């Protein structure tokens, strides 16, 4: 097991090298270079000054040299400054934006787990009942509905339509943002502030969680059904154990194993999938930052976010593979 | 030496197979099939359905006058009907505009579903959106399958270090967050249908390559391959005649069911403004047109509901149809159930 783990961890190194290469190439391919704006701003700029600027920015060197320079700095955690915010890109991404995304994705993840597992188990225990069919159908609708459309509908219903219908001036859930602007925890006290934050979190977190919720419900049902048909469950029943013990102690524990790997694999997706949700609810998270950086050509920020997302995906893929190997010893063949 | 004669077993007909019986008995499968069939019919007959509301450039490229459009394009005996149905000019995929007013217009007799922001005809967009959904879905899956089959086939056939190197490469591509990579590609090469289709194909082939490799390894270990080898078949013959056909079949079926999820990603990117060209009939973009009109004026928050309800519903229903169908087929093919 140790050898397998080491081998898999070592395989991440070339993978990261490849990722950095692709990220750098993608950004180097972007139309327009950083000098263009400077040249454009000063119509009387001379060719010599342009050359000097190029030298100052290191743009006179061939691309592979620039790549290795960038890689060297990146390995030391230096991704350069953000053009839009004039602070280090890493500070912008990891200190300002990542916590917001962690909060949103983490809540969505928990919400999906807490709802999907009991419903999936219930659906499996009452196989082919009316409730099972309704749950199955809703799950299908859940992962077929476009996230952006669902978000818009929820926003419209809870922030605009329902309050108007009920004659309330205040929306039931706010239309966007992460906190009421100008709300200061020092002024209103901790609990009202916390309440306001949670109030802002409800709609985006639910929107982001729907797809995972729907697919995990299906997987939980399938996994539970498979375990319930196994011999050891029949043995447990034959021993005369109460149904409650058979289901929750023998079946559920084993049925959860494949779901755990599935959830591990879904975590990176929650980060990159947050782009849409964050856009709709103007949530100041990392996905939104990446999207804005790409549109505004703030490359240092874009590269930081891309490298982080790719690293995250690679690490969770690895963890899922290791988890599989722990659970199923047959996997350790390579 | 006596000729070895093979007794061919009678092939089980599809209609009597267990898979088909399992599929037929699943009510969700029937619903999915009906939804997909409905969209297919709409997509195929889009030119005839929209003959009364076609844009100027579409009619010009078809060589049909507006006055005769309905008569000609809805008559299966005319050659123009077949030209429009089988190979419509690219300009027909553009949603015609009635005026350029940014304010949506309520449904009227001429425009039964109304006009979206920018004067785009919603009914036309919905109908041709079905066609572009199939177009994009089939093309993207086709390209992704091609790459996947090439790489998966090579690894499965050659094995050894080629297998190792190619699989590491596949893992590396697989490790990229797909949607994000497509976003980056579109910002580099500009928004266009080709860019987005290629980008999605390039991030989605690893699944197929892995699946094919797995299938090949599974088939290679089966007895009939040993039997073929014992009868003197060479490695190439074994691979192309016995292994590949048996490994590729399920792959193609399962891949074709991914059309729904491809359409869903295209719609999401289109909604962000990173999709096909502006004006191309795609449902995600139609929700984007409606973005400023989702909330109506004070007092009538749902005033412009028709601009965003229909395209969103179309995406959801289309994807739902494919997902129901896909799940049912997977179940039916799974020998364990």
Question: End-to-end span of chain A in angstroms?
Answer: 11 Å
Query: How many strand segments of chain B?
Result: 0
CATH architecture of one domain in chain A: Orthogonal Bundle
Q: Which whole number gives the mean pLDDT of chain B?
A: 86
- Total helix count of chain B? 15
CATH fold-level topology of one domain in chain A: MetI-like fold
Structural class of chain A: mainly alpha
Largest sheet of chain A: none
Shape of chain B: elongated
Order of helices and strands of chain A: HHHHHHHHHHHHHH
Strand content of chain A: under 5%
User: Helicity of chain B, in percent?
Assistant: 55-70%
- Stretches of chain A where pLDDT falls below 50 for ≥5 residues? none
SS summary, helix count of chain A: 14
Oligomer: heterodimer
Distance from first to last alpha carbon of chain B = 46 Å
* Main β sheet profile of chain B: none
Q: What would a concise description of this structure say?
A:
The complex is a heterodimer of chains A (334) and B (337). Chain A is built from 14 helices and no strands.
């Amino acid at each position: 097991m140790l050898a397998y783990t080491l081998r898999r961890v070592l395989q991440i190194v070339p993978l990261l090298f490849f990722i950095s290469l692709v990220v750098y190439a993608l950004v180097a391919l972007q139309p327009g270079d950083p000098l263009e704006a400077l040249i454009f701003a000063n119509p009387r700029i001379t060719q010599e000054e342009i050359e000097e600027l190029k030298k100052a920015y290191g743009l006179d060197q061939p691309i592979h040299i620039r790549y290795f320079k960038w890689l060297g700095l990146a390995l030391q955690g230096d991704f350069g400054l953000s053009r839009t915010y004039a602070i280090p890109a890493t500070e912008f991404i990891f200190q300002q934006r990542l916590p917001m995304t962690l909060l949103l994705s983490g809540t969505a993840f928990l919400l999906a787990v807490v709802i999907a597992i009991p419903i999936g188990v219930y659906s499996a225990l009452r196989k082919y009942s009316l409730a099972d069919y309704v749950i199955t159908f809703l799950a299908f609708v859940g992962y077929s509905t476009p996230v952006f459309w669902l978000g818009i509908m929820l926003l419209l219903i809870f922030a605009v339509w329902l309050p108007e219908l009920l004659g309330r001036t205040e929306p039931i859930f706010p239309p966007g943002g992460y906190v009421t602007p100008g709300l200061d925890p020092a002024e209103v006290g901790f609990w009202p502030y916390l309440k306001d934050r949670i109030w802002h979190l409800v709609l985006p977190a639910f929107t982001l969680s729907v797809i995972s919720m729907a697919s995990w419900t299906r997987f939980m049902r399938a996994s539970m059904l498979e375990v319930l048909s196994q011999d050891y469950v029949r043995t447990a029943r034959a021993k005369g154990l109460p149904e409650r013990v058979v289901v929750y102690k023998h079946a559920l524990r084993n049925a959860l194993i494949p779901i755990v790997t599935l959830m591990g694999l879904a975590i990176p997706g929650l980060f990159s999938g947050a782009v849409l949700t964050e856009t709709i609810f103007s949530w100041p998270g990392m996905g939104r930052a990446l999207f804005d950086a790409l549109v505004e050509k703030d490359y240092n920020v874009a590269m930081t976010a891309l490298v982080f997302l790719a690293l995250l995906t690679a690490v969770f893929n690895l963890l899922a593979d290791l988890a599989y190997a722990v659970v199923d010893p047959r996997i350790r063949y390579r | 030496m006596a000729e070895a004669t093979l007794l061919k077993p009678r092939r089980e007909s599809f209609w009597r197979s267990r898979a088909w019986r399992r599929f037929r008995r699943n009510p969700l499968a029937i619903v999915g099939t009906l939804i997909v069939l409905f969209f297919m019919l709409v997509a195929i007959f889009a030119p005839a359905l929209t003959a009364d509301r076609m844009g100027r450039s579409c009619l010009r490229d078809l060589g049909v006058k507006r006055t005769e459009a309905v008569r000609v394009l809805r008559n299966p005996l005319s050659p123009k009907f077949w030209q429009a149905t089988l190979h419509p000019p690219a300009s027909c995929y553009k949603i015609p505009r009635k005026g350029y007013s940014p304010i949506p217009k309520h449904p009227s007799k001429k425009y039964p579903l109304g006009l979206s922001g920018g004067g785009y005809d919603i009914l036309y967009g919905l109908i041709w959106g079905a066609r572009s959904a199939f177009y994009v879905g089939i093309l993207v899956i086709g390209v992704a399958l091609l790459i996947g089959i090439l790489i998966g086939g090579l690894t499965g056939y050659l094995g050894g270090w080629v297998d190792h190197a190619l699989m590491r490469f596949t893992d590396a591509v697989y490790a990229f967050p797909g949607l994000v990579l497509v976003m980056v590609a579109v910002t580099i090469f500009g928004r266009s249908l080709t860019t987005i289709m290629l980008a999605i194909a390039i991030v989605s082939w690893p699944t197929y390559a892995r699946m094919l490799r797995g299938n090949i390894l599974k088939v290679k270990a089966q007895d009939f391959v040993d039997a073929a080898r014992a009868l003197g078949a060479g490695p190439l013959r074994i691979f192309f005649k016995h292994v590949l056909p048996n490994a590729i079949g399920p792959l193609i079926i399962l891949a074709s069911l991914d059309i729904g999820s491809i359409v869903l990603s295209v719609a999401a990117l289109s909604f962000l403004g990173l999709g096909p060209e502006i004006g191309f009939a795609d449902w995600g973009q139609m929700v984007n047109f409606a973005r400023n009109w989702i909330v109506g004026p004070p007092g009538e928050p749902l005033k412009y509901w028709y601009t965003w309800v229909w395209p969103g519903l179309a995406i959801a229903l289309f994807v739902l149809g494919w997902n129901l169908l896909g799940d049912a087929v997977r179940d039916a093919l799974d020998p364990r159930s």
